[in-house]
Design a protein that fits this description.
Length: 483
C-alpha cells in the first residue's frame, strides 16, 4: 500500500497541488508512496507560521522542550525496525544499516532533550567597579534546514533536534528523492506535542521550496548538507540576502585512508571495505582514496580483491545483503561514467565496476577498485559518491601523508598502523575535521562534533554540544549596581 503523504504546516497536514512518487531502488516496480511536492506558497506559509510561533517558543520552558524531544526520541527508538525498513526501502542501504540509522536518530533526539536542561551562561566581573557582566545564548529565530538523500533520518535529526532544543522554529525541506523517512520523522515530532508552527515540513524541489527559504528575510539561518555546487549557491544566497543569513554547510569529501607497512592487514582491509563500500559508498565520509605504502601494497591489493569478491550485492531488505543498490538512475549513471573515466585516465580496474542484475529491476553496481592511480587523476580528486575506491602507492609515511592532504576536501581521514609514533603524527597533521586510527573513515558518534575543513564544510560544527555555536547567538549584558 502506498503512502499518501502531506506537508506539515502550522500544526496541520496540508495537501499540495503537485506530488512525486518515491521509488524503491532495489525494485523499481515498488512504489514506496506518493508525497506532496510543495509550492512557493506552501513554503511561505510554513515560514510565516514559524515566524509567528517563535516569540512564544523561544521563551518556552526548558522542561517543555526536553519533554517533547525526549518523547520523540523514545518513539523513534521504539519503532527503529519499522523506520529502518522504510528507510532502506526508499534509499537502498541494507536493513541493518537502516535500523542503525533510525536508532541513531532517536539517540540524537534524546541527547538534545538533555541539552535543553544544560543551557548555561557566564557571569563575570567587569573591569569597571559596580558593574556585572552576563553572557547568555539566545535562539537565532526561524531556521531553514535542507537535508540530503543519503541519510534520510539521521541528518534531519541532527539538525532538527538542536534547532528545537535551543528555542528556534524550523522549516524543514528534505531531499526530494527520499521523502518517506522525513515524513515519518515529522509525524513523530508532531505527535510528541510540538506547538503549531514551531516545526514545519515542506517536501518538494530545491529550486522551489529551497529557493523560497533562501530568499526569505524571515529566515535567520540555513543549515545545508549536500553537494559542493549547491552548497556554494546556498552560501551566495545567504550572503546576498537582506539581512544576511547565518549558514552552516556540509558539502562532501574525498577522504583518504592511509595503510602503512606495519598495519594489521586484516584490520586495514576491513576498514577499507567498510569505509569505501558500505552504504553503497554513498557517504560523505567514505574512504574513496586508499593510500598504501610499498611494503604492504601488493598484499593489500590481493586481500582487498579477495574480500570484495565475497561481498553480497542485492536487495536492501533481503537477509544477507551487504551492499544495496545505488539510490537512483542518475547516481548510477554518474558512478559508471567515473569508472569509464578512470580507465581512460590510465588507472587499472582490478575489481568490480559492473552493472548487476538481480531478482527485481534495480540500480545494482558491483563495488569498483582501481589501482595505479595518480593523485592528480579526476577519480582521485572529485567526489564520486558511489562504491568506487582508488589505490595510490606511496614510498614512505611522509609521502602518504602528503598525498592524503593533497585534496580540496577535508572532512574525514584515517590511518591503519601499529605505530604510536605514526598514529600520533597523523592525528596532528592530517588536514581533516575528523581523524580515525585503525577505524573506517565513515562512522561517527552522535554526541561529538561532526564537520570538516577546506571544501568539505563551512560554519560551526554539527552534533554534540558544539551544535549550540550555530543554533544560538551570544548576548553580552551589563548591569550597574547603582552605587
Amino acid at each position: 500500500m502506498t503512502i499518501q503523504a502531506k506537508n506539515y504546516i502550522a500544526g496541520e497536514w496540508v495537501a499540495a497541488s503537485d506530488a512525486s512518487l518515491d521509488i524503491n531502488p532495489s525494485n523499481t516496480q515498488d512504489v514506496v508512496g506518493e508525497f506532496a511536492r510543495g509550492s512557493v506558497g506552501d513554503a511561505q506559509r510554513a515560514i510565516d507560521a514559524a515566524a509567528a510561533a517563535f516569540p512564544s517558543w523561544s521563551r518556552s520552558s526548558i522542561q517543555l522542550r526536553h519533554d517533547i524531544l525526549k518523547k520523540a526520541g523514545d518513539e523513534i527508538i521504539a519503532r527503529k525496525e519499522e523506520l529502518g525498513r522504510l528507510l532502506s526501502q526508499e534509499e537502498g542501504k541494507t536493513l541493518p544499516e537502516g535500523i542503525g540509522e533510525a536508532m541513531r536518530a532517536g539517540q540524537i533526539f534524546q541527547f538534545f532533550a538533555g541539552e535543553c536542561l544544560r543551557l548555561s551562561g557566564e557571569k563575570l566581573a567587569s573591569v569597571r567597579p559596580g558593574v556585572e557582566v552576563e553572557i547568555t545564548r539566545e535562539p537565532m529565530g526561524v531556521v531553514g534546514l535542507i537535508t540530503p538523500w543519503n541519510f534520510p533520518i539521521a541528518i534531519p535529526a541532527w539538525k532538527i533536534a538542536p534547532a528545537l532544543a535551543y528555542g528556534n522554529c524550523v522549516v524543514f525541506k528534505p531531499a526530494d528523492l527520499v521523502p518517506a523517512s522525513a515524513h515519518a520523522l515529522s509525524e513523530i515530532i508532531a505527535k510528541a506535542g510540538v506547538p503549531a508552527g514551531v516545526f514545519n515540513l515542506v517536501m518538494g524541489r530545491g529550486s522551489v521550496v529551497g529557493e523560497t527559504m533562501l530568499t526569505s528575510p524571515q529566515i535567520a539561518a540555513i543549515s545545508f548538507t549536500g553537494s559542493v555546487a549547491t552548497g556554494r549557491k546556498v552560501a551566495q544566497s545567504c550572503i546576498g540576502s537582506d539581512p544576511m543569513k547565518k549558514m552552516q554547510l556540509e558539502m562532501g569529501g574525498k577522504n583518504p585512508l592511509v595503510v602503512l607497512d606495519d598495519a594489521d592487514l586484516k584490520v586495514a582491509v576491513e576498514c577499507a571495505v567498510n569505509g569505501a563500500f558500505f552504504s553503497t559508498g554513498q557517504r560523505c565520509t567514505a574512504s574513496s582514496r586508499l593510500i598504501v605504502t610499498d611494503g604492504i601494497h601488493d598484499r593489500f591489493v590481493e586481500a582487498m580483491t579477495e574480500r570484495m569478491q565475497g561481498l553480497v550485492v542485492d536487495d536492501a531488505l533481503k537477509p544477507g545483503t551487504q551492499i544495496g543498490p545505488v539510490v537512483d538512475q542518475s547516481q548510477l549513471d554518474q558512478d559508471l561514467s567515473y569508472i569509464r573515466l578512470g580507465q581512460d585516465e590510465g588507472a587499472t580496474l582490478v575489481q568490480g565496476g559492473e552493472r548487476l542484475t538481480r531478482d527485481h529491476p534495480g540500480f545494482y553496481l558491483s563495488p569498483a577498485l582501481f589501482t595505479n592511480v595518480d593523485n592528480q587523476m579526476r577519480i582521485a580528486r572529485e567526489e564520486i559518491f558511489g562504491p568506487v575506491a582508488t589505490i595510490t602507492r606511496a614510498k614512505t609515511y611522509e609521502e602518504a601523508l602528503a598525498i592524503a592532504n593533497d585534496t580540496p576536501f577535508g572532512l574525514s581521514s584515517g590511518i591503519c598502523t601499529t605505530s604510536l609514533k605514526h598514529a600520533g603524527h597523523f592525528k596532528r597533521n592530517s588536514e581533516a575535521g575528523m581523524v580515525m586510527v585503525n577505524l573506517p573513515t565513515a562512522g561517527v558518534d552522535y554526541h561529538v562534533p561532526f564537520g570538516g575543513r577546506k571544501g568539505s564544510s563551512y560554519g560551526p560544527r554539527e552534533q554534540g554540544r558544539y551544535a549550540q555555536e550555530f543554533y544560538t547567538t551570544v548576548k553580552t549584558a551589563y548591569t550597574h549596581d547603582g552605587n
